[in-house]
Amino acid sequence: MSEIVKLHTPLAEGAVRSLRAGDEVSISGPVYSARDMAHQRLCALLESHEELPIDLRGSVIYFVGPTPSRTGRPIGSAGPTTSTRMDAFSPKLIEAGLKGMIGKGYRGQAVRQALKRHGAVHFSATGGAGALLSRHIIASEIVAYEDLGTEAIRRLVLRDFPAIVAYDSHGQSVYKESDI
User: Fold this and answer.
1) Among residues 8, 39, 49, 118, which one is catalytic?
2) Between 140 and which of 41, 75, 113, 116 could a Cys-Cys bridge form, CB atoms 3.0 to 4.6 Å apart?
3) 130 versus 46: which is more confidently predicted?
4) Is 170 in the active site?
């Protein structure tokens, strides 16, 4: 059994470059939640050279639209959404300094090239385990696009969030090319 790599956000490039596809990781620290509409808005701001509502440098985005929280909890169920839905936006965000993403499933060729070119990584979390994963989120606050409801950008604080490096910064993947 391999040792779990403990990561703390924001991610330094050296930490990202040391990761290999298949590494099990435990992520702690602040990350941002964002799905399709938030990604689209962030990219529109980048294209118009406007300031972003969040600092992407070294950041991790979790592709999640959490359910409302229960009493005493910072967040409801928080399972990953399908990563390919963000493929049209991810290369621009990676180029702007994003160092990690958490989702489920495959990533397209343009994303994989951007990960390699800019020293970033894509983590996979277990789909269907949103209630369990939410136990690793110890704080949540909306920081942008409140009008998007569950898809608003939130600043989440993670503690020992379990994931696997699905795509590393060296062009390697846990998936077989024939699966993609």
Assistant:
1) 39
2) 75
3) 46
4) no
